[in-house]
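At this stage, I wrote out one protein's amino acid sequence and its backbone structure tokens, and that material follows here:
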Amino acid sequence: MNEPPDAHSGLHSEQGALRGEHPGRAVAPIVKIRDLAWLEFEKPDLVKAEAFAVAFGFTTVLRTADELQLRGTDEGSPCVIVRRAARSGFVGAAFAAADTADVTRLAEATGRTVRPLPETLGGVAVDLTDPSGSAVRVVAGMHRLPELPGQQSHEFNTGRRIARINATQRPPREPARVRRLGHVVLQSTRYLETLNWYLRHLGLIVSDFLFYEGQRERGPVMSFLRCDRGSTPADHHTLALTLGPSNRYVHSAYEVCDLDAVAAGGEYLLDQGYRRSWGIGRHIQGSQIFDYWRDPDGFLVEHYSDGDLFDNTLEPGWAPMTASGLAQWGPPATKDFLGITPGPGLLHEARAALSTLRGDNEFDLHRLRGLMKVASS
């Protein structure tokens, strides 16, 4: 008797859910967003911010004394909006609804008001706040920036497939051309509550869950969420949420065309004096080839290529969270990437952990032990 194929075997996770575990989707979400539109930051030095952005591979759409808008080569909205402020900070994420009717529906369901976006962007928005306190903007009807010439993938000779004859391979050491914003990762002290909020309000669905080893019965501590586009494949994750001692931005990721763009673009960034955090490697959940960098304000940003695409039929995978399980190949995850490099950032997280352990949230002493085990794994 033939057994049905295991959808998770060799694909994206070690195993699927056990009976009674989180289903990874809401039964009747209010709306189903289509994509991640842009991220908003505050930074004190826009000149320095733009210099890094250009070296990283963005194109400047708008530059004023108080605002930067940065885009990729794909048609659509800006990827990143940076406004001048006294201190650096992550403001929040904007998600693209299917149409303005969905923005109105979400506003009515949450008791909020639909408002017009600035003329530089066009369209309308409803502003929400998730249970972790992060600003969430759902938008529709924006101006569409035309597609720009993109970086071309090279011809590859792979095994017996010969595509390049009497020609050399010479990828230039230049900025990788960012195509688009791929995903953002956020940390929350109220992870499960926040996860359920995004499933219910934005119609996201979970591609993969991670749990602390030895604590699976307590539920997941990280999830990779994709857009539900029905039979149309979507990125493995548009948003990732993880449990932690503070509510904060972790990193954001931007797609480039291929491994050569990741690698040559990284060499260019090194030549310009910027700091690699971790890479190059290939992830397990999502399968992306990755390379992580710190911008001048300390924000973690990622070049990636060759990520997984899932339609809405695939159920969540489940796997233990370990530092060594973050990549299939590549160098070990660095202390900088894991956030355990001695310095102000680690001190802030330690203080946050002490405060959080005394508060009413999901990050307790048992979870702290699990997180410390991940960092040492």
